[in-house]
Amino acid sequence: MIVTCRQMQQCEEAAFARGVSAAALMEEAGRGIANVVRQFAPRAGSLVLFLGKGNNAGDALVAARELVADGWQLYARLSCEPAAMKPLPRAHLAVLGSLVRIVENATMFDFPAGPIVSLDGLLGIGAKGAMRPELQVLAREMNELRTQRHAVTIAMDIPSGLDGDHGDACEDAVEADVTAVVAQIKAGLLEDGADHYVGRIALVP
Q1: What is the pTM assigned to this prediction?
Q2: CA 85/CA 186 separation, integer angstroms
Q3: Minimal CA–CA distance to 138: which of 120, 111, 156, 126?
Q4: Residue 126 and residue 205: Cα distance in Å, rounded?
Q5: Residue pair 81/56 in contact by the 8 Å Cβ criterion
Q6: What pLDDT score does 28 carry?
Q7: pLDDT (0 to 100) of residue 105
Q8: Strand 185-186 vs strand 2-3: parallel, antiparallel, or unpaired?
Q9: Which of 46, 47, 84, 121 could bond to 111 as cystine, CB 3.0-4.6 Å?
């Protein structure tokens, strides 16, 4: 099914009204995203989490927690101080603790030899318009890591900087190799020109 971002938000609101918690949805989404990483990057290496302050970051952190058992080394590039993150992603970051190393610039960091996967946890379906400067810097780093270090970039739901309804991309929008779409395909992912940013689509039930 193809939906607008607002329709997807209404589905989430209906789930909350039935008693489903945001924490439970995040667990399910994160586990599904971890499986997408396993599918497209079967050999463990460096998993670089690019994290905004919202629940999209929480999905990335749940996926990272699942992937530690596979041998992935975790790194995080933060757009803000952990205290400024929403409660759920802040809690998941705290749970990972010393398992995740915070880096200041992913393009300058000396990652160990082996595969590199960037996980785009900057923005979710609620984002509109141009990215804030601190997010734009991280999106640009993600794209540079992809071109310079051959990192595989996996976006979650929509690549950050891409309009989920219309497929318009703002400056430095994330160029993903794979977009792990949670539950339903958002209409903007299928628009002309969006494929440059979306890459392959993997549906997370």
Answers
A1: 0.94
A2: 25
A3: 120
A4: 20
A5: no
A6: 92
A7: 94
A8: parallel
A9: 46
> Would you give the distance in Å from CA 34 to the centre of its chain?
11
Kindly write down the DSSP assignment for every residue of 4-22, as one continuous string.
Answer: -HHHHHHHHHHHHHTT--H
Give the tens place of pLDDT for each residue, 91-115.
999 999 999 999 999 999 999 999 9
Stretch 152-176: mean pLDDT, rounded?
Answer: 93
Q: Could you give the 3-state DSSP secondary structure of residue 171?
A: coil
Residues 103-126: b if buried by 16+ CB within 10 A, e if exposed:
beebbebebeeebbbbbbbbbbbe
- Amino acid at site 134: E
The vertex-64 CA angle with 148 and 43, nearest 5°, equals 60
